[in-house]
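New to this. Please check both lines:
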Amino acid sequence: MSNIKNYQTILKPIVTEKSSLGSEYNQVTFQVANESSKKEIKEAIENIFKVKVKKVNTLIVKGKRKAFRGTIGRRSNYKKAFITLEDGQTIDINAGI
C-alpha cells in the first residue's frame, strides 16, 4: 500500500473524553475514509506509526440534523475506527505526524 493511500485512509485522530478512556485498554480512535476496510485501516496504521495492531473495530457515525440561521441542515456521516494495539505498543497522537 502506498504512503499516499495510507494518509487517505486515516483522516484524523478523534480526541474526546470518551476516546481517551480507551487508552486504558491500549486503544486509539481515528476518523477514517468511509470506503476503507478493516484490513486497509490496519495496514495504514502499521505503516504510518510503525506499531503492531491487534484488532480494528469500526462504526458509522450518523450525521446530526442541525439548524443554522433558521435553515435546517445535516452533518455528513463518517466512519470511526477503534484501533487496539499489541501490548507494549503506543501511539502519541499529540505529536505531529
Summary: The radius of gyration is 15 Å. The longest strand covers residues 53-61. The chain has one domain: 3-85. The beta strands are 10-13, 27-32, 53-61, 65-68, 71-74, 78-85.
